[in-house]
Amino acid sequence: MERSGSLVSSSILGTILLAAVILMFQTWNFRLIAEAQNASIPAVFVFGDSYGDTGNNDYIPTFIKADFPPYGRDFVNHRPTGRVSNGKLMSDYFVDLLRVKELLPPYLDPKLQDSDLITGVSFASAGTGLDNLTSELLQVIPVWKEINYFKEYKARLIKLVGDERADMILSDAIFFFVIGTNDFIVNYFTFPFRSLHYTVSQYTDFLLQTYASYIKDLYHLNARRIALINVPPLGCLPIERTLHFVESKGECVEQINRAASGFNEGLSPMMEHLKSALPELKIVTLDYNGLILDFIQNPSKFGFAVTANACCGTGFIETGLLCNQLTPFTCADTDKYLFFDSVHLSQKAYEIIANKFLGRNILGLVANTMTE
């Protein structure tokens, strides 16, 4: 009986200690979020692909669009906006959590107001990549053109607020870059053009060199605080599990995950080189890959029930035009799903990610010393 009582006491003590540790972590994370919210962040800008495109593709001639249901079904007024999800993207949560504004508008929206310009926009284009061939294959906005749009934006901003205030806004703003997914899953692993001439390692080096040149371009346009969102575990996307079902048996595709990991590992030396060359640059990486793996491996911890397939249609292949109002079998409760379509996350996942990023990393861009 004494031994049994001792075990019960130990179990209770262990539970109390675990609860205390969780409470301490949550308190620390909330403190970091509060500090980031109180920091001076006048504007937010996003560059890259569909993970950051809040609707730019609506205004260009391309078939890579999401301006039809069921996309946007959980957005404001339940309307599609070009965001490739059921609702908000992490771009929107970034500006909301940082108290900049409620939503991040697309730069190409003809209804854009002056107040929207001053506090930031998204230049991202769904389907684009670091490799110009990626954007050519899908007829979307290449990254070099996103940068050109930013140059155009800067000229408009100067007209609105003057040179001095424009420089202050840009140097204190946060610039997010989310890019690389399409270079691998659309370009390298689907079409033969690059894979015939490059090994995965060589192609990764090419992408990283291109990436560094774009960051330098932004720096010379007065960007000083830059956050690079790494690529997700691409082999775990429902569409890749489906396309490679024979070899992967429905599990994550290791060959494609290794390519994603190689790219992500290359970001650190690239950043160190950039920091040595650009003395005023503050730059961090945001571990999108690690968070999504955590969602997949521990779904119940985040409230997800389904992570191998998506909400839209069968959940195995549907994305873009294949995910439409006539697509059968679309789920009723998106919050149970990690993915909304076979490539893109649900609004719930983006909200969790934005909160995690804000607490762990974004404070490093506005503090005197960076947190990793």
Categorize the overall geometry: globular
Series of secondary-structure elements, N-terminal to C-terminal: HEHHHHHEHHHEHHHEHHH
Strand content: 5-15%
Number of strands: 4
Question: What is the terminal-to-terminal distance?
Answer: 49 Å
Strand order of the largest sheet: 1-2-3-4
Nearest-integer average pLDDT: 90
Instruction: Count helical runs.
Output: 15
Counting helices, strands and paired strands, the structural category is mainly alpha
Unreliable sequence segments? 6-10, 18-38, 368-372
Main sheet record: 4 strands, parallel
Helix content: 40-55%
The radius of gyration computed from the alpha-carbon positions, rounded to a whole number of angstroms, is 21 Å
Topology, please?
Elements: H1 2-38, E1 44-48, H2 90-97, H3 114-119, H4 132-138, H5 143-161, H6 163-172, E2 174-178, H7 181-188, H8 192-195, H9 200-219, E3 225-229, H10 238-243, H11 245-248, H12 254-277, E4 282-286, H13 288-297, H14 299-302, H15 347-366
Parallel strand pairs: 1-2, 2-3, 3-4
Helix pairs in contact: 1-15, 2-15, 5-6, 9-12
Description:
- This protein has helices spanning 2-38, 90-97, 114-119, 132-138, 143-161, 163-172, 181-188, 192-195, 200-219, 238-243, 245-248, 254-277, 288-297, 299-302, 347-366; strands at residues 44-48, 174-178, 225-229, 282-286.
- With 372 residues, it is mainly alpha-helical.
- The chain is globular.
- Mean pLDDT is 90; it is low at 6-10, 18-38 and 368-372.
